[in-house]
């Protein structure tokens, strides 16, 4: 993808939270997806040691680095359902 096609960060505001909408915000902190995230984080806490004690950055990294198929399925399901709420 060309850099000229990238939306500048300052133009990517979450219309729900009024902060920069990036991948980390979408996955671990957007208030619009809080109820969906509870299910995702419950699964993550079962599969990733000490998940609930991690920082937002740690949770984001742990989710994206997981090679557990159940965790990857849960992340995919979360993303599809969150997209339907947009």
| Computed CA radius of gyration, to the nearest angstrom | 14 Å
Could you state the order of secondary-structure elements as H and E?
HHHH
Specify the helix fraction band: 55-70%
Strand content: under 5%
What is the terminal separation in angstroms?
A: 24 Å
| Apparent shape | globular
- What is the number of strand segments? 0
Short account of what is shown:
With 86 residues, the chain is mainly α.
Structural notes for this entry:
Helix 1 (23-29) crosses helix 3 and helix 2 packs antiparallel against helix 4 (69-85). This protein has four helices and no strands. It is mostly helical and 86 residues long. The chain has helices at 23-29, 34-47, 56-65, 69-85.
Name the descriptors.
single chain; 0% strand; globular
Task: Give the helices and strands, then pairings.
Layout: H1 23-29, H2 34-47, H3 56-65, H4 69-85
Helix pairs in contact: 1-3, 2-4
